[in-house]
Protein: Probable purine permease
Organism: Solanum pinnatisectum
Amino acid sequence: MELSAQQPPAALHQNRQQDHQQAAYEYSPAACFIRSVLAKIIMCSNNKGGTGRVSTRSQMQAETGKRYYMILLGINYMCLFLGSVSSSLLSKFYFNHKGGSRWVSTWVQCAGFPLLLFPICFFRIFTDRKSFTGFTPKILCPSILIGLLLGVNNLLFSWGNSYLPVSTNSLVLSTQLAFTLVTSMIIVKQKITYPNLNCVIVLTLSSVILALGSSHDKPIGLTKAKYLKGFFSTVGAGLMFALYLPVMEKIYQKVDCYAMVVEMQLVMEIAATALATVGMAADGGFSEMKTESLKVFDLGPKAYWLTVGFNVVTWQLCFMGTAGMVFLTTSLTGGVCMTALMGINVLSGVLVYGDHFGGLKAVSTLLCVWGFCSYIYGIYMNMKEEEEEKKTEICREKNVKKMNSDHIMELAEIVTHNA
């Protein structure tokens, strides 16, 4: 720190004391350890070359260590697990107790974006990276557009969730894995294998069986037309989310670190919230929230606002977990992880709300499990093939080195003999 010759002794002493305090913080073992660990976990570099997520993961593991990669992966999947199950149950809880505003249900899915400021500030304090570093128009503009797409997806999900039981809604959404496979093939050149194709066929068949056999599953007073509207709204939400995942994978190839993923998620949630806010304002949703909490919600205003508040938190966990899984793995793997949670959602809907679980829904669930296992088996076979290829390449390189070494030794013997 540069000090002026005119500076008073008291000010000089104060500045020196501040320098000593700052130095003590920066070089204390605890502070250094925290900064070191967070830097390794948070500042995971992405592959800017866009050669594929497998190479990205290998690069991350090489630079930050497998342990830190797995910690970050585990945190994101835990967020996805808690957010997915809790948000589905809370959304249905809202509608079961006479909450009827689909705009409110849409708004709470994205209105929790201020919560993302906490991890962003946390990253800023404990790492040397400045927030929103590397944000260019090529990243900012797609983030806004995808946020608007996410807002439409949230509205479709709200329509479907307001009409369908949790178990039916979850099983229909499980078809998004099939859609994700197709969109990933087109957008990020996902390789199609027999297990992937089998997964698509099985999950599509599962959805058809569910649609044909769930007419008795309608809530009391719900017409067939509204039930079909809810069913196709949920299918539409699955289609849009299947488009969202590979598009995000494509964009994440230009992202430098995990901290930037959180910042992009903040921008997307702000755009989605803006869309939902405009819809609510045009449809009288804000005044409807007040009326609904005081006169409509049968558990009272306090329970109403608690339901809304917890919905806001759980949806942020769900979306942030999804974004992290796509960044750290692939869009298809992120879709598989969400599909794996559908069984938990079905079971929770049956246990908590007493949803009907008849024979056709059981068959549909088994088909979902079959499709999921088919995909996992495909991943296992691909990993096995990659390991065999690596071993073959390593053996080939060793043989080439050995041949070169033998050739050099022969030349040396010839030169020595001639000498």
